[in-house]
Amino acid sequence: MKDLENLYQEFKDLRHIIHANPELGFNEFNTAKLVANKLKEFGYEVYEGIGKTGVVGVLKKGNSTKSIGLRADMDALSIEECTGLDYASKNGCMHACGHDGHTAGLLMAAKYLASANFNGTLNLFFQPAEECCDNEMLSGAMRMIKDGVLERFKVDYIYGIHNMPISQMKGYENKKFFMKKGVMMAGVSAYKVDFIGLGGHASAPHLCKDPISVANNFVNALYTFKSLELKDSIVNVTGFLAGTTKAFNIIPNEASVMINVRGLSNQELEFIDTRIKELATNLANAFNIKAIVKRAENIKATINNDEAHELARLAAIESFGEDECEFEHPHLMGSEDFSAFLDEVKGTYAFINNGDSANLHHPEYNFNDEVLLLASKYFANLVLNYLK
């Protein structure tokens, strides 16, 4: 793929432009416009504003009804960058997860494929807000799907990748590509449970309905539930908010508990949801106060399809060499909203070695530009192998 290698410098420079101008989820207006303009320049049909700031590029060749989808995420994180790079962000947020590289890498593949020979339809999905949810608790993938993206742009298979610092893939430092059948990443749910009581003076607790004691019992119940009833899931209390530091003689009206749940089974995640609501409600009722449970995030487990895995495996071997690929990599407890696409369409999600960089979501992280060529080769081979 010499023609693809010749594009490297162009898309390395483009990646640096995106990196220097990061935008948070559902606000990727300039990034989306850059993507749309590039796709038009390459000869794609372009559709904008899907899932608020999502972009879809469509390229049809020949007469085959076969179709394939490739996805990249575009959003940044609310992190102050500390890399000292010439192209570092100066606007208070940062591409600390490499979505700038995912976007540039897919655009690189898009330009190459625009002049390649294939028979069928290629749909490119540039997604907003992988890192966050909107007011309806929809991530970028969920919102694009709710907007009908998969009905409008049908695909037989869909594929996505993520860069991964080698420090987060211990034991596989000599590999470039990582994938497995079945569950690749955990699902995640986030909760805020508000216990509403009746505040008052600490000298007269009998005239109050203390939400702190109920919230404390709820936390203890959660950890008992976790140890006795769960198999493949993690439940952690990540925040407890109550009272004031300005006075020590006030029983507050409200206490709030934040919870993070991660699981490899979507069925178990729903079971946990039911149990959290039961525990909170029953404890609140027992002490005559009110509990309000808000599920602030709900990302399903990322589960690779066996059929799609075989297509990805062959493309990865062609792109990286079989010795550079690991097809039995253990699942990760991190999560990815690409799972929303995999819940609707056959596909796989995989990782590409980002080298010895700082970890994802770290203020010193930087995407390894060499991954641009690796990712674009993999994407190109997926398309050319399937749309022969």
Task: Give your account of this protein's structure.
With 388 residues, the protein is α/β, with parallel strands linked by helices. It folds into 2 domains: 2-185 and 301-386, Aminopeptidase (3-Layer(aba) Sandwich); 187-299, 2-Layer Sandwich (Alpha-Beta Plaits). The protein is built from 11 helices and 16 strands. The chain has helices spanning 2-5, 8-20, 29-42, 99-114, 140-146, 149-152, 211-229, 266-286, 306-320, 339-342, 370-386; strands spanning 45-50, 54-61, 67-73, 120-127, 157-164, 177-178, 182-185, 187-196, 200-201, 233-242, 250-251, 254-263, 290-299, 302-304, 325-326, 346-353. α2 (8-20) runs antiparallel to α4 (99-114). The longest helix is centred in the last third of the chain and has 21 residues, at 266-286. The protein is elongated.
Provide a concise account of the structure shown:
This protein is α/β, with parallel strands linked by helices. Helix content is about 35%, strand content about 25%.
Key phrases:
388 residues; 8-stranded mixed sheet; 26% strand; 2 domains; Alpha-Beta Plaits; alpha/beta; Aminopeptidase; elongated; 35% helix
Amino-to-carboxy terminus distance: 16 Å
CATH 4th-level superfamily of the largest domain: Zn peptidases
- What is the CA-atom radius of gyration, in angstroms? 23 Å
The tally of structural domains comes to: 2
> What name is given to the CATH topology of the largest domain?
Aminopeptidase
For the record, the CATH architecture of the largest domain stands as 3-Layer(aba) Sandwich
| Biggest β-sheet description | 8 strands, mixed
Structural class: alpha/beta
Strand order of the largest sheet: 1-2-4-3-5-16-6-15
The CATH top-level class label of the largest domain: Alpha Beta
The overall pLDDT average reads 96
Tell the overall outline.
elongated
